[in-house]
Every structure is written in C-alpha cells, then in structure tokens.
Design goal:
single chain, amino acid:sodium symporter activity, Amino acid/polyamine transporter I, 472 residues, 21 helices, transmembrane, Na/Ala_symport, mainly alpha
C-alpha cells in the first residue's frame, strides 16, 4: 500500500507540477484574458452589481436564479481550500505563495467566465425538463468530431471520481474533524448528522440546493470574514509588513525563519497556483454545471455573474485568510503545522478560544457546503453517462459515502482527489483554448450591444434574432 501511495504521490506531483498543469492553467487564463480584452477588469463592477444587486432574471429558461447558481458554485468552491489550502501554500511556499494565488485568481476569472458562458451556450434540456450543461456537454457540442467527444467523456469520468473524493470524502472528514475539535462530537455522530441533512437537501434536487445555498453561503462567508477583519484590526500595524513580505517573497523566495525552512520562487509559484486552483476551481469546468441551470436571457450575462465567484473566493476570502496567517506571524510555524495554522492564527489574534472556534465552525460550514455543491456536479455527470435514471441512485450512494468520509482516515483519498481534480481540468482547458475564438466573438458582440447588462428580455431576444443565434 505504501508503494501505491508513493506512486500516486509522484503522479500527483507531476500533474500539479511546474511543467504540466500549472503552465496550462495560467496559459489558458492568459489566452482568454487577451482574447476577451481583460473582461475580468473591464466588467467586474457591472458583473458584481448584476449578480448581487440587480433583480434576478426570471424570464429566461432555467431551473434556479442567477444568484442561486452563483451561490451553488460558491458552495462547491469556498471550502477547505480557503482555510487549510491557503495555510499549506504559505507554510510550504512562503508568503509569496499568496501573490501567486492572486495571479491565479485574476487570470482564472477569464477562465471561469468562459466556462460558464459555454455551459449556458451549449446546455440542453433533460428528460425531466431541467437544464443541464457543463464541459460534459459543451466540449462535445462545441468541438465537432471525435476529439470533442473524447474530451467530454474524459471530463465526465474524472468529474465523477472527483465528486466522491474532493467533493465528498475529504470534505466530510474535514467536517467531522472540525466538529470534534470545536464541540467534542464523535465522528460517527457527525457522519449520521451529515447523512440526514445531505439526504434532505438532495431529495429536492437543484431547486432545493439553490434555496439552501442562497441562504447558507452568504452567512458562512460573513461569519468567517468578520472574524478575520477583527484579527486584522487588532494587528493593524502588521498589515503593511505583511503586504511587503507577500510581494517581495513572490519574486525572491523566502529565507528560513522559525519553523519555516525557506523556499524559492518556483516553490512559491507552484504552491500558489496549485492551492489557488484547489480553492477557486477556475479552469476545472465544474462551476459551469451550476451556471447551466440558471435562468438568464443570454449566456454572457450568467458568465459574468459566475466570474464573480472566483473574485469572491480568491481575492476576498483567500486574501483574508492569508493576511491573518502572515500578520500574526504563525506562517513561520512550519509545514508540519499547516493543518492547524489558520486556527492558530485566529487564536493568536482573538481573545480566549474565539479564534479556534470561529475557524472550526467555518471549516464545518465551508466543507459541508462543498459537499452540497459537488453532489449536483457529480449527478449531472452521471446523468450524461447513463441518463436521468442514474440521478437517484447517485444521490443515494453519495449520501451514504458522506458517512464513511466522516469516520475514515483518508491519506490515499486526498491524493486521489487532488489527482482527479487535475485530470478533470485537462480536457476542459484544451476545450477552452480551442473554443476561445468562439467565446470572444459572441462575448464582444453582446457587450457592444448591452455593456451595462441593462437590456430588457425583449431587446435581448431581438438581438439574438439579429445575430441569427440558435440559442434559447
């Protein structure tokens, strides 16, 4: 078994290494950023307003509102990576790793926009009358010939594996650990609680998932950010120095200090990109599955809303975690303490046991929300393989697996989950590059017509007719 774990670890290291997935992820994001003329910078405030403030578009076809699609995708991505993943990146790569997480997030916004745009553009109606889309559809429908079909099937298979790994077992284990640390609840009890709660949500399908995440996700992020802001206010004098470390170490490496052994530029970049993608999932294609269920009058509109997910996840939540860790000095504790580093940082910055409690409770919320979001991703991929009749069995198996995740040691599963994440991204990234011209053409045309996303449904319908678009 140890030889198998070593082999898996070596493969995972190569896939997420500086010569394979990392340049492909960053390169794809840069290509799309150029093709889309910096869409993440030009339209960010319009996208945030449309997704968070404007009334939801109820006229387009879809199963949930654009806001619910956003929170469902956020539920799947704001997870363990925002707490433990950030700590691991900084513990191994130094403070400079946070800079590369930012870079990954910024270029990843173009990737996330493109995925969501394609998810809506090539979505289809399933046998139950619900909208279904994502890379498992747009790779095949957008790229003609056998290549598109191969890429679509590859994504589908890897996504199903990932849904049980990174989307279930590892998250359930994090929930159980968090509840045990914070409240002394036994893992088997946590497993039963999650089994019941998850089953109740999944019985209602995407509508129930959308309702739960739209109420649950903003609250969990608010609680965590409030705790982080409090720590940063208390340590305000350390913030300028923290930013100086982040920028200097990103390009010079970090010297050994305390329990931190030191790192070079390549290690900071590798950890920053790998943990950044683990956190926001830009380039992986998964969030487009949730986007495809949204009610919208045009793919560009929902693509822009979905793009803000990466901004919220990485530029907001990840930044707060990283600044708390660096400003309190706990980043020097060493990589062996990465698992508790964020909790240690909050405890150092807040009186009594409040810091550790906030992190433990946030970890529980973040991880359980990820389980909910990924259950939908996996279900849609199973449906793509075997049809709608596979949805109920998948939900039942997924719900049972969450119990075993709570009570099982998961070293091998973590590696498999990380590997499946990387392999899932590969066919999607190839597809994004091949379809980048198509994405740019339709995006530029729509934003020229409706740059503020204020056009009425009637005007959008007229625009589609003038463009000769076959999208409904």
């Amino acid at each position: 078994m140890s030889d198998f774990n070593t082999l898996l670890g070596d493969i995972d290291t190569f896939v997420w290494g500086p010569f394979f997935l990392i340049p492909l992820l960053l390169g794809t994001g840069l290509i799309l950023t150029i093709q889309l003329r910096g869409i993440q910078f030009r339209t960010l405030f319009v996208a945030l307003r449309h997704g968070l403030i404007d009334p939801n578009d109820e006229t387009g076809e879809g199963d949930i509102t654009n806001y619910q699609a956003l929170t469902t995708a956020l539920a799947a991505t704001v997870g363990v990576g925002n707490i433990v993943g950030v700590a691991t990146a900084i513990a191994v790569g130094g403070p400079g790793a946070l800079f590369w997480m930012w870079v990954t997030g910024l270029v990843g916004m173009a990737s996330k926009y493109s995925e969501a745009f394609l998810g809506i553009r090539f979505r289809t109606t399933d046998s139950a009358g619900e909208q279904s889309g994502g890379p498992q559809y747009y790779l095949e429908r957008g790229i003609k010939g056998p290549l598109g079909k191969i890429l679509g099937i590859a994504f589908t298979l890897f996504a199903i594996v990932a849904s049980f790994g990174i989307g279930n077992l590892t998250q359930a284990n994090a929930v159980a650990t968090g509840l045990e640390d914070a409240f002394g609840i036994a893992p088997n009890v946590s497993g039963i609680i999650m089994f019941v709660c998850l089953g109740a949500v999944l019985l209602g399908g995407i509508q129930a998932i959308g309702r739960v995440t739209s109420a649950f996700v903003p609250l969990m992020i608010l609680i965590y950010i409030t705790g982080a802001i409090t720590v940063l206010v208390i340590n305000a004098e350390q913030i300028p120095g923290a930013f100086a470390l982040i920028f200097s170490d990103a390009f010079s490496g970090t010297a050994a200090t305390g329990g931190f052994l030191g790192s070079g530029i390549i290690l900071a970049l590798q950890m920053g990109v790998a943990r950044g993608i683990f956190s926001n999932e830009s380039g992986m294609g998964s969030a487009s599955i949730a986007a495809a269920a949204a009610k919208t009058t045009h793919p560009v509109r929902q693509g822009l809303v979905s793009m803000t997910q990466t901004f919220i996840d990485t530029i907001v939540v990840v930044t707060f975690t990283g600044l708390v860790i660096i400003s309190t000095g706990t980043w020097t504790n060493g990589k062996d303490n990465a698992g508790t580093m964020t909790a240690d940082a909050f405890s150092a910055g807040l009186p009594g046991h409040w810091g550790g409690t906030i992190v433990s409770v946030s970890l529980v919320f973040f991880a359980f929300s990820t389980i909910i979001g990924w259950s939908y991703y996996g279900e849609r991929c199973v449906e793509r393989l075997v049809g709608r009749h596979g949805a109920l069995p998948y939900r039942m198996i997924f719900t049972v697996v969450v119990f075993f995740g709570a009570i099982t040691e998961l070293e091998t599963v973590w590696t498999l989950a990380d590997l499946a994440n990387g392999l899932m991204a590969l066919p999607n990234l190839i597809g994004l590059i091949l379809l980048s011209g198509f994405i740019a053409k339709e995006t530029h045309a729509y934003l020229k017509f409706d740059p503020k996303l204020k056009a009425s449904p009637t005007d959008v319908e007229k625009f589609l007719q003038e463009q000769g678009s076959d999208w409904k």
